[in-house]
Task: structure prediction
Amino acid sequence: MAKLTADALRDMYLKFFESKGHTIISGASVIPENDPTVLFTTAGMHPLVPYLLGEKHPAGTRLTDVQKCVRTGDIDAVGDSAHLTFFEMLGNWSLGDYFKREAIAWSFEFLTQKLGFRPEQISVTVFAGEEGIPRDDEAIAYWKAQGIPEDHIYPKGREDNWWGPAGVTGPCGPDTEMFVDTGKEPCGPDCSPGCGCGKYIEIWNDVFMQYNKTAEGTYEPLAQHNVDTGMGVERTICMINGYKTVYESELFLPLLEKIRELTTHELSEEKRIKAERIIADHMRTATIILGDPKGGVKPGNVGANYVLRRLIRRAVRYAMDLGLPSGFTATMADIVIGTYENFYPELREKRELIVSELTAEESRFAKTLTQGRHEFEKVAEVMAQHGQTQISGKTAFKLYDTYGFPLELTQELAAERGMTVDTEGFAKAEAKHKEASKQGEGVFKGGLADHSEQTTRLHTATHLLHKALKIVLGDHVNQKGSNITAERLRFDFSHPEKMTKEQLEQVEDLVNEQIARALPIVCETMPIEAAKAAGATALFTAKYGEQVKVYTMGDFSKEVCGGPHAQNTSELVAFKILKEESSSAGVRRIKAIIGEPALEKRKAIGK
Result:
């Protein structure tokens, strides 16, 4: 029997749900739009947040797509059989349309009739009931109606089968997860789906948003019930083809084969396999990020830029262990592009940028490692002068975090000088750093970003700012990213040099003029081709014929955007730029505020 490929799975999934009345929509950028909670798009539902909250989607109430996702919270687990930093999520959504009965029936139909899993291979978990919320007997009944026996249905608590809310309040609800039995022996009498022993592998998750958690801590039924599902491409083709690891599929084999061909150093099998997988995973993710249509993320020291830098440098460090030649990152990128270009043609279009950024970062890191060696020598010399024989964990971690020195290398160099390393102290310093990194990366378990009135107005201000920048600086200006909190907006845009004081004043005045004009903000739904013809600004990643929303602000701004937006520019009150700075090479960043605080600051300077 022929192996199921990623291309075939994507096509099969989308066509299946299209046959169930779903509209196929484009996956969004891997760089989230106006969401301060995360650095990257981490789930299929992430870009659909406004519509899950009740806004009308231009494609209707039944949607399906393939979404590129990046999650680096478990980066240190990469190298095992299943953890990845980039994955593709297949999803289908009901926005106030169908609910549990249809979602469960279609999930079962796809798993058994399309993917060919035997019904007896499938086990499911459901919400067991907690905090005054009853057990999800509806889901249990619908699974039984599909022929799933009771001993294959496992009720579990909130930790396993509950989604949300993202914050203190908001939409939330039970979910049901589907697992495939691998045939392994159970780990014990309590072995069940989700226990982590490897007998059961999760393949799909259906989330049922049916409650709203209030500020008082009570759960009220939601007026609009939504279904949000997710199936990982890599994990599914691993399971359906009987692979032991996700690295055996056509998504990774070409990368691994090339790595083995280029390897010149002998390592133990365990270390070699781990290094190969880390290089393959990280280079795949870095290529996808650099090749994203939205762009704007390049190796750097802050936020998403730092995550990208860490991925590249971690891959380079393990490449050195294997003895891969300089410039290997370009070779890896070409393989990734060749694997994905049919489904993501933007990767081929951005090949030159991808390769230049990877090779530049590879070169920078080689220099950094040399600096790290000098730093080690200085530390060792001072210690020898004072008769010290153990390098502190804090110093060893600094060498690792700042210069890319792995602990093993520090230990080897130390041993040559009759010294040891405080590995326990290193572990503590690393744990402290990981915790800080996780907080910086943001936590998004399908969470909903802040869509308050203030953030909606700040989002509206980014449209006015974008247009004003184009007028003052030129049409080369394009949005490269944005981040909005309740207090301020941050807007990244393409521009080769620092803006002058005069240019900043012109931009700020232009935006304030539009606010003073009290322009109505009109939303229209139209095909992407019509939006282009109407002169709307957008990253045109939508598919041919796809319906999009176009927001027009008087005669000033016209942009394709998912929303939400204010009704009139006057709601913004005033606009004030706080700072203009570099974000990365060729990309500038503006931070600004609106409302009364902006008005006060402008009055203070006589505006």
Q: What stands out?
A: The two ends are 73 Å apart (CA to CA).
